[in-house]
Write a structure and sequence with these properties.
Oligomer: single chain
CATH class of the largest domain: Alpha Beta
Radius of gyration: 29 Å
Strand order of the largest sheet: 11-8-7-6-5-2-1-12
Structural class: alpha+beta
Number of helices: 14
Number of domains: 5
CATH architecture of the largest domain: Alpha-Beta Barrel
Distance between the termini: 66 Å
């Protein structure tokens, strides 16, 4: 028969880092936003209860391609044998073959393996892998090829169904590479066709399928391409055979719940490969950019579905493209992220250090525990990431993403631990002693990491946030949705003058933009530590072009990005416009909002401090802006303007130091006074009763303190408490419940009060012990509402059930450790 090109199981490369299909690539298809998806079929079997471990062919395919560009039977067998000898005893078991494995279709339109790559048949390769006690994976993408539609072949075991009727009419693009046609899943024959291919794969013994070019994601976020119907169809077809279903690439986080419902894993970012054939597999920037991605995605990973960071290419220093410290940092990030632990190196050439990294049982144990780590903060390059384990120990990774060696410190309070703790270095496999208050990893090298286990001492208290994996929910619950209150600080600008000396304050050199009534605008220079830059960014100062603060950040590399998380209602991205610049993609809260053009025509004068993107009327709360360079020679960041609801009235003040003119400054708080946690200037706390006083909701700054300020501009910072980690879970369903299982001698529930809340029943070990009232005149955060002490040293359960009110919020649980384990 004529060889047809089929989208499903095609030879399309995982080309997320380059727009064109690879040599030998074959057509594919994509899904429809309006398509009726099949009934959900839970994809999570026992095989997805922890991250998988194994090897993928793709890094080698682009590093040392064979003739035709794809990996051969002999190479796959060699990798299987090497894994069997070196890595399988440590849990590695998957041998996954990426794009390019097929060269046509059979009489039913199902993919057929390449006879060139597999002269003895693909089944021979699969049998070899299985004989080594391993699992075998293949690759596919959404859609169906135009040639297959035109051929109108019968669908296997589906009387009356043909491939000619499976595409959406009129035809639509299916995938990122525009290789195939979108399938019409309102037609039951489309599901039967997918089922027929999944059944064929299962008959071969396939254990895993990577599904590439999934949208929203894969560089497309505007629903012009939407593969969700394909994902649902494949999920249903594969789940019947308990075949692991992995989605790729750079999946859109707005649809995280959908990916979690239908898949066992999902790539969170672009390809890790550097596409520098014969030179390296990857580069540091491909590792470094994953930190902000995992700061967004960590809470979505867990048993049944995992955040995929792509191949862990750390096994051979001569091919990895990373320093020894960077290799260990990558392995640490994969481990603490509970990301699938699969490598892309040639396993026949692993070096001693690579084997050391890949076979450390304590580090593998962190990965297989399946508890994704979260960052304490991403505002600096010295970062602490942590996870709370079932045995009440913590896993803590300390990363130095900076350009010089540095100490990296973790405070026990920042990870939710109140008490002393024993520390063990997991890479060195060595106990370091007991530490009070925290731990300092000294002289962490450039791009280096430390990985420790922290075991709380007897009597320590542990705080468990509402989005921790250990917290369980019954009924309909949602996270945040404007029911949260973030912690926030607001400076009160004070203009200090001295009329007796005739010395008025100078006006600020750079004025903040005017804000609408009831809001205030804060200007952040490009060097603000809260702005996270990923990629190859540099700074330039003294350019004399009128830059804010006389400096800018800039990059010359496409796909480099900046990101800033703020509390407010709006933000402006301010940069320059010039003929050397191009397009920038702007995302708000993970959603692509606009591609802005920062270019000018050649010969036009450079324009400094231009607002090229602005958004207002966001719900008051925590939001993230992300800008990604798409074209042009340069992309710049000059400043960001953040708009927030004003919490102070008035929100500016003036003070005259002249003795006869001195007067207190009174400010009304527009949030409950009980939420105010401190007042400071330049980081120094002011003393209540001396520097200021509180009467109801009015704070009075004493003139005696104000008189100590120098002439000029001062900022008195008012800090307000928020929900723990700026988030809560909430439900409006009576009878819905939240629970925690713990081992300890006491437990507390700390949550929010508010006028929209009512009563909740508290159960300890299945027994109703108290009904608590959560109503209050104003919204209040971090309120202790229940405590139980004197519990036996055994496992207990705490369960909270909604009884009344419009909504129930839950924030944190806090329990007391009986003893170190």
């Amino acid at each position: 028969m004529t060889v047809l090109i089929v989208s499903l199981g095609s030879a399309v490369s995982s080309a997320s880092a380059r727009p064109a299909a690879q040599p030998g690539a074959q057509p594919v298809v994509q899904p429809v936003a309006a398509a009726v998806a099949p009934e959900p079929y839970a994809p999570a079997g026992e095989q997805a209860q922890k991250p998988y471990m194994g090897w993928s062919s793709y890094s080698m395919q682009v590093y040392a391609p064979t003739e035709g560009g794809w990996i051969t039977a002999d190479q796959i067998k060699a990798q299987s044998d090497a894994m069997h000898e070196k890595l399988q005893p440590f849990g590695y078991e998957y041998i996954n073959v990426d794009a390019g494995w097929n060269d046509g279709v059979d009489d039913y339109g199902r993919p057929t393996p390449s006879a060139t790559l597999y002269p003895d048949g693909l089944q021979d390769v699969i049998d070899h892998v299985h004989a080594n006690g391993q699992k075998f994976g293949l690759y596919s993408i959404p859609g169906i090829s135009e040639e297959l539609v035109e051929a109108d072949l019968p669908v296997y075991d589906a009387p009356g169904c043909t491939t000619g009727e499976l595409a959406v009419v009129p035809h639509q693009q299916a995938d990122y590479w525009d290789i195939g046609l979108k399938m019409d899943f309102t037609n039951p024959c489309a599901q039967k066709y997918v089922d027929s291919i999944a059944d064929l794969y299962a008959s071969w013994g396939v254990d895993f399928l990577k599904f590439d070019s999934v949208t929203p994601g894969s560089g497309i976020g505007d629903l012009s391409l939407d593969a969700r119907a394909d994902v649902a169809a494949w999920s249903q077809a594969l789940a019947r055979h308990e075949i692991w279903f992995e989605l790729s690439w750079a999946l859109d986080i707005r649809y995280a719940d959908y990916w979690k419902e239908h898949a066992n894993g999902w790539r969170v970012d672009w390809d890790v490969e550097c596409y520098c054939a014969g030179e390296a597999l990857t580069v540091w920037s491909s590792i470094d950019r994953l930190f902000p991605r995992m700061a967004e995605w960590w809470r979505h990973g867990g048993p049944g579905g995992w955040n995929d960071l792509d191949s862990l290419d750390v096994g051979n220093g001569s091919m990895d493209g990373l320093t020894r410290d960077e290799r260990r940092t990558a392995a640490t990030l994969w481990a603490v992220s509970a990301a699938p632990f699969y490598i892309g190196n040639d396993m026949t050439r692993l070096d001693a250090y690579g084997l050391e990294l890949l076979t450390n049982p304590e580090v593998i144990g962190v990965n297989q525990a399946g508890v994704p780590a979260q960052p304490v903060s991403t505002e600096t390059n010295k970062q602490v990431w942590y996870s709370l384990n079932k045995d009440s120990s913590y896993t803590v990774a300390l990363f130095n993403r900076g350009r010089t060696d540095a100490d990296v410190e973790v405070s026990w309070a920042d990870i939710g631990l109140d008490g002393d703790a024993k520390v063990r270095d997991l890479w060195a496999r060595k106990d370091l002693g007991t530490f009070e208050g925290g731990f300092v990893a000294q002289d962490v090298p450039i791009h280096g990491a430390r990985l420790i286990k922290v075991t709380p001492a007897k009597g320590s208290k542990i705080t468990v946030n509402d989005d921790d994996l250990r917290v369980s929910y019954e009924g309909e619950w949602e996270r945040n949705g404007n029911f949260e209150v973030p912690a926030v600080s607001q400076p009160l600008p004070v203009t200090v003058t001295d009329s007796s000396a005739g010395d008025p304050a100078d006006e600020a050199a750079d004025e903040a933009p005017e804000a609408a009534a009831g809001t205030r605008t804060t200007v952040l220079n490009d060097n603000d530590p809260g702005i996270v830059y990923t990629g190859s960014w540099n700074t330039s100062t003294g350019r004399t072009f009128g830059d804010y603060g006389d400096d800018v950040h800039y990059t010359e590399s496409n796909d480099d990005a900046f990101e800033y998380t703020f509390v407010g209602t709006g933000i402006d991205y301010v940069t320059e416009k010039d003929s050397s610049q191009g397009d920038v993609d702007i995302y708000i809260d993970g959603e692509l909002k606009e591609t802005v053009d920062t270019s000018l025509e050649p010969g036009e004068d450079r324009q400094a401090q231009q607002v090229v993107y602005s958004i207002s009327d966001l719900p008051s709360g925590s939001h993230t802006i992300r800008g990604v360079k798409k074209s042009g020679d340069y992309m710049l960041v000059d400043r960001l303007n953040v708009r927030q609801e004003s919490l102070l009235d008035p929100d500016t003040a003036a003070f005259d130091k002249a003795p006869a003119a001195q007067a207190d400054v009174a400010v009304e708080l527009l949030r409950d006074a009980g939420e105010l946690v401190g007042v400071s200037v330049d980081g120094a706390e002011l003393d209540e009763g001396t520097a200021y006083g509180i009467d109801g909701n009015v704070v009075t700054i004493r003139k005696e303190y104000l008189a100590t300020l120098p002439v000029g501009e001062a900022a008195i910072d008012f800090r307000f408490r928020g929900d723990h980690h700026d988030d809560v879970h909430h439900t409006s369903e009576d009878g819905a419940a939240v629970g925690l299982t713990f081992r300890g001698t006491g437990v507390e529930w700390v949550t929010a009060l508010g006028p929209d809340q009512g009563e909740a029943d508290v159960f300890v070990d299945g027994r109703l012990v108290e009904r608590v009232d959560l109503s209050a005149d104003t919204r209040r955060t971090a309120q202790p509402v229940f405590a139980a002490t004197g519990l036996g040293d055994k496992e207990h359960t705490l369960r909270i059930e909604k009884v009344s009110g419009e909504v129930l919020r839950t924030d944190t649980f806090r329990y007391t450790v009986a003893k170190s384990r």
